[in-house]
Amino acid sequence: MGDLDRLKVLISHWIEHNREHARTYREWAENAEALNRGDIATVLKEISSETERMNDLFERVSQLLQE
Question: Is the dihedral of CA 60, 62, 64, 67 positive or negative?
Fold first, then answer.
């Protein structure tokens, strides 16, 4: 397997890995809200959003690798 093929596999893995993390951050944000810690929930939601933004960048790399 060449480096570009390996990178394709890694990018796919990283995207799925980030999706799982973003989902977990959102779940914990809900838990924090239930504990009346909106301050923590706000930051966790922001982390989730940033993780999703990072996935947008990984998707761009994935598209570039398809060219």
Answer: negative
**C-alpha pair distances (Å), 22 with each of 19, 26, 40, 65, 67:** 5, 6, 15, 24, 28
Count Cβ atoms within 10 A of the Cβ of residue 44 and give its class: 0-12 exposed, 13-18 middle, 19 or more buried: buried
Tell me the average confidence (pLDDT) per consecutive run of 10 residues in the chain, 67 residues long: 93 97 98 98 98 97 94
Residue 5 structure tokens = 């093929």
Q: Two tokens at 40?
A: 């923590």
